[in-house]
Amino acid sequence: MELLTTNNVWMMICTALVFFMHLGFSLLEIGLTRQKNTINILFKNIFIICVGLLLYCLVGFNLMYPGFEEGASGFFGFSGFGLNSPVTTEGTLDLNYNAGYTYWTDFLFQGMFAATAATIVSGAVAERIKIGPFMIFTIIYVGLVYPIAGSWKWGEGWLDQLGFYDFAGSTLVHSVGGWAALVAVWLLGARIGKFKDGKSFVILGHNLPLATAGVLILWLGWFGFNGGSVLSADPAATSLTLVTTSLAAAAGGVSSFLISTLAYKNYDLTMFLNGILGGLVGITAGADQMSPTDAILIGVIAGGLIVGAVALVDKIRLDDPVGAIAVHLICGIWGTLAVGIFGNLAGFDQFLNQLIGVAAYAVFCLATSFIILFTLKKAAGIRVSEAEEINGLDDYEHGMSAYPDFRLNEH
């Protein structure tokens, strides 16, 4: 009982840290975009966490952990609506649900992960998406797509049986959101003024101090994201996981800053910040399997990928205001493949399993997100008008300003 209590308390602390990440995402997103869209972005992020938790309670948790029967294909299962905690014959809570935590702690910890996929999309589509269609997309993607995808590995589905490994979600969380972000950005088109006469122009964010605070909050939250994924308070496993997480983040930041400085001859804070996030996403798939040196190498490569991916996204004329595609999709793929290259599981067979997993999630997420967003585009439209975009979504969709005493005429 004492061990169960210790493990459960650690899991609840990690749950709180992952919840805190939603503040980090919010601050990062508003900091890297213009002040006239601040309320709109904050509204979307609040909607995601509230509705995400409700959906995960009603359907998501039991879609993600359906209890596949022996011999099942492991592609889809559903164990019923709502939450039904296991109880003993005396009617009390069954603490034998798991050696490390209770049923309720399991639900809440996993529920905090569920909303993150839509949060990733929110940043990529910022400043020009209609809020109604975005909310509908969130409901379907968080309520159905994410938990079905999650069941393939974490729910002991077909990819888990194959040997695919994703410790805390480089693919299951970050790439699942990243693939949808890619589709959404493509279908939406670029913000007014981003591309003109074949050239790309920087649209500056309005508050880099807030963006910096957001990244540091996310780094802190990642201790819960990865540390809690140990699913116990085991000292050896949790301490190693926190060390590899931190080292990859630091290496990603330094690598991105150095490479971007050499390439563009300026000290770009946004590249530094996204490099940290790229390192964090990159280590997430194998944080418990890596040595400190492995973690640093994974972070260094992730930082380089950030610089290259941001440039590539611009070159193919996709407009991603916060760099979500580079951070969550590209570094998510890298982190997943890195499990087969570095650490305890490294080997050709493991790399092949990782590659199959990446491809499977690419097909599933690209297809589902395209169907949802293309249908919404044809049925109701997903982009605001030119006048609404120029005036700002705060005025148009919310009738308020984040900074009423400091109004600027932004175009």
Outline the structure in words:
- With 411 residues, this protein is mainly alpha-helical.
- Helix content is 66%, strand content 1%.
- The protein has 15 helices and two strands.
- It has helices spanning 2-31, 38-64, 103-114, 116-124, 131-151, 158-162, 170-188, 208-227, 235-264, 269-284, 292-315, 324-338, 348-379, 386-391, 393-398; strands at residues 195-196, 199-200.
- It has a two-stranded antiparallel sheet with strand order 1-2.
- A hairpin with a 2-residue loop joins strand 1 (195-196) and strand 2 (199-200).
- Helix 5 (131-151) packs antiparallel against helix 13, helix 8 (208-227) runs antiparallel to helix 9 and helix 10 crosses helix 11 (292-315).
- The N and C termini lie far apart (61 Å).
Q: Secondary structure elements and their pairing?
A:
Layout: H1 2-31, H2 38-64, H3 103-114, H4 116-124, H5 131-151, H6 158-162, H7 170-188, E1 195-196, E2 199-200, H8 208-227, H9 235-264, H10 269-284, H11 292-315, H12 324-338, H13 348-379, H14 386-391, H15 393-398
Antiparallel strand pairs: 1-2
Helix pairs in contact: 1-2, 1-3, 1-8, 2-3, 2-4, 2-5, 4-7, 5-13, 7-12, 7-13, 8-9, 8-10, 9-10, 9-11, 10-11, 10-12, 11-12, 12-13
